[in-house]
């Protein structure tokens, strides 16, 4: 697509582009290039020079049990966050869609947690489940359940999943509700006249017609869980206990800044880069083919 | 955030033209009550953590450390918020709020300005290298800052921009989402407008100021809402580059308020800070709900 009518000159457009080009070059292309470059080197023991190791860092990562474990952790974590936040959102959206009046009010009440930062959400949930002062952990204790996410890996994972899903429900709810409201009423009423009950209508008509929204949200939520939940993990568990909640992005941070293992951290960045690329490609390739419009 | 925009637009929360008729599918009577009950339950679950944080920010420390804490607000509201705002734990929270505000405004306004300019250049001019620039910018849609933290940190350090506002802002505006959106929008602006401007002898920048900018107002506002929240809620980047407590933003400073080791955290002050940290973005979302939804659809970040 091109404009037919344009202005003359080349100096002005160059000047207009300059700020963006400068910022993109200095803070995007150069660092991204550096990440790729550094992933091929390891620093010598004294940190004085870099030694070229080819794909050595990647081979090392592939064999590293901690890195593999982190991959599994990330997969479990993103899968759970996606399912929990989308499930809750779909449940609320289906209910709100049944209302003739008032769905707008519920929308207002439900969308604003989107504005709460993941790190703040982390602190809120940490407070409720804190082993010493937490309200929910205290009531669980009354019921005879000894909650301790500081020591128990499953509980730690559960807590970061819930805290990460909480604010995300708003986002998913918004898109699900819009998707539901876009389904023609006549189709659903026709099915109802044919005697299809709510659950049958949902399974055979509503859910298939909703699949473009569902697929879109699926990818977006996986990307969210991969990259934007750092704040939740850092505030609640710091990746622990042991490595139980160390997702890939957290490991890049930990190895790069805490462990100062630059080669490995850079190689991990490159792996993440490939993951983002892959998710984007999947989204573009399959969105039209797999889903029902 | 990425090239998902186009897809977001397809699944957009537009106000559909569905007429809310009294059909046979809508529930009435007892079913309607169940629907409301289900939704209210959901709202309560969503609200509960905030309510608890608010209560904790209005009671005293002894009331919290002897669980269970009360579930209704106490009388320490003023004390806790004054303490948080003006002394805090490491730095006064008022400072952190100011830092967050500068960062969020810098990111949202900065990104809008540079994107408007470059989208204008790419759409309305023909010059050598235009295609190349376009693709270079498009490439940046792909890569979140989390992926390139270590080398970006080194760049900021070498520019001497640690513990500075420019260090907080620039790396986060180095992506092309907004440029891409403005380009899409400019492409829909009728050619006749530029034609008329040229016939009238208007210079390009005059066309930009007098015609293009006023037309882009809604897009700019919608983008502003999304970018403001994005900037305000940043965590990892400020954590890396602000080692000086007086440069902390409120969202990252929150975690710094927890003591290391076994000391008990000053929960009332921490919870007051959490509430303060979410007020500005929540106000933005609620007061500009329409623009917010539009911005969410336009750009997924």
Keywords:
heterodimer, A: 293 residues, mainly alpha, MetI-like fold, 13 helices, 2 strands, B: mainly alpha
Provide structural commentary.
The complex is a heterodimer of chains A (293) and B (301). Chain A is mostly helical and 293 residues long. Chain A folds into 2 domains: 11-52, no CATH class; 57-290, MetI-like fold, CATH 1.10.3720.10. Chain A is 73% helix and 2% strand. Chain A contains 13 helices and 2 strands. Chain A has helices spanning 11-38, 56-63, 65-98, 103-111, 118-129, 135-142, 153-181, 185-193, 198-209, 211-227, 230-236, 248-258, 262-290; strands spanning 41-43, 50-52. A two-stranded antiparallel ribbon of chain A has the order 1-2. In chain A, helix 3 (65-98) crosses helix 10, helix 5 (118-129) packs parallel to helix 11 and helix 7 (153-181) runs antiparallel to helix 10. The model of chain A has no long low-confidence stretch (mean pLDDT 86). Chain B is mainly α and 301 residues long. Chain B has a domain at 90-298: MetI-like (MetI-like fold, Orthogonal Bundle), CATH 1.10.3720.10. In chain B, helix 2 crosses helix 15 (267-287). Chain B is globular. In chain B, 47% of the residues are buried. Chains A and B meet through helix 1, helix 3, helix 4, helix 5 and helix 6 of A and helix 1, helix 2, helix 5, helix 6 and helix 7 of B.
CATH architecture of the largest domain in chain A: Orthogonal Bundle
Number of helices of chain A: 13
Average pLDDT taken over every residue of chain B: 83
Question: What is the architecture of the domain at 90-298 in chain B at the second tier of CATH?
Answer: Orthogonal Bundle
CATH superfamily of the domain at 90-298 in chain B: MetI-like
CATH topology of the domain at 90-298 in chain B: MetI-like fold
Strand order of the largest sheet of chain A: 1-2
Compressed to H and E, one letter per element, the order of chain B equals HHHHHHHHHHHHHHHH
Largest sheet of chain A: 2 strands, antiparallel
Helices of chain B, by number, come to 16
Largest interface: A-B, 111 and 118 residues
Q: What do we call the CATH homologous superfamily of the largest domain in chain A?
A: MetI-like
Which spans of chain A of ≥5 residues are poorly predicted at pLDDT below 50? none
- Tally of strands of chain A: 2
The largest β sheet of chain B comes out as: none
CATH topology of the largest domain in chain A: MetI-like fold
| Helix proportion of chain A | over 70%
Domain unit count of chain A: 2
Using the CA coordinates, give the radius of gyration of chain A.
24 Å
Class from secondary-structure proportions of chain A: mainly alpha
* Topology order of chain A in helix (H) and strand (E) letters: HEEHHHHHHHHHHHH
